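Worked example 3 (structure in, sequence out).
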């Protein structure tokens, strides 16, 4: 008798079942109860359906939309409105933090007007960098490649990656400012250096946040896809602004 049978329990999550199909390449898996008795099977076509549902749900959550199990054209206007409005309201309210940070530095930034024009670039770059990492980690969590116990390895890898990317983007940012932005604005070399330095630091920070948040969400039993967009965007934007204003005021002379 074969004792080491690969099977799934009636209490296993459907995502775990999909992972087992992916790992073992089976066409069907036996389903057993708590006492190890066979109660049925799960076929690979069922696993494919579940994988599509889970992937769709993750994409919708990352885009800030409450998931729906209906086809797009069969979802009514009111239902679509209800699925999107809460997330947009949350993002709008979260922008209050970034507005409060800018207001707290308003008097100082008024003497460094040229720096305010680079705030959208820095926040956008940080958000994109964090998004790259979070999507990668969420995918790794979904397929079982990464667990919370691997957090130190993930942080170390993303730190090395973000350092190399941050330095590259920082150098290119400095060159862009000196070659392009100076054509239509009077920006000094020290100001260009500060902007490039902040771009490097915020990019590193965003990638670390992007890798840590999904793992923490998984640890506390939340869907990692939920934190990929609303929460990460708020945190990264706020930290980018604080770093930018703090470094600019510390390095540049304020009249």
């Amino acid at each position: 008798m074969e004792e080491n049978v690969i099977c799934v329990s009636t209490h296993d999550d459907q995502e775990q079942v999909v992972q087992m199909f992916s790992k073992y390449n089976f066409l069907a898996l036996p389903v057993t109860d708590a006492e190890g008795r066979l109660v049925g099977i799960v076929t690979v076509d069922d696993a494919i359906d579940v994988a599509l549902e889970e992937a769709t749900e993750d994409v919708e959550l990352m885009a800030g939309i409450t998931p729906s199990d209906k086809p797009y054209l069969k979802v009514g206007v009111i239902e679509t409105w209800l699925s999107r409005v809460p997330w947009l309201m949350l993002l709008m309210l979260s922008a209050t933090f970034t507005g409060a940070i800018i207001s707290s530095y308003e008097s100082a930034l008024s003497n460094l007007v040229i720096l305010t024009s680079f705030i959208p670039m820095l926040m956008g770059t940080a958000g994109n960098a964090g998004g790259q990492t979070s999507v990668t980690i969420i995918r790794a969590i979904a397929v079982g490649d990464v667990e919370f116990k691997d957090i130190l390895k993930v942080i170390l890898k993303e730190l090395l990656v973000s350092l190399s990317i941050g330095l590259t983007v920082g150098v290119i940012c400095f060159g862009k400012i000196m070659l392009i932005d100076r054509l239509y604005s009077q920006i000094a070399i020290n100001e260009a250096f500060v902007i490039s330095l902040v771009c490097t630091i915020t990019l590193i920070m965003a990638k670390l946040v992007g890798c840590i948040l999904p793992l923490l969400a998984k640890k506390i039993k939340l869907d990692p896809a939920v934190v990929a967009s609303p929460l990460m965007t708020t945190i990264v934007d706020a930290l980018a602004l604080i770093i930018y204003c703090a470094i600019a005021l510390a390095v540049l002379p304020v009249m």
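Notes: The beta strands are 8-9, 28-32, 38-43. The chain has a mean pLDDT of 82.
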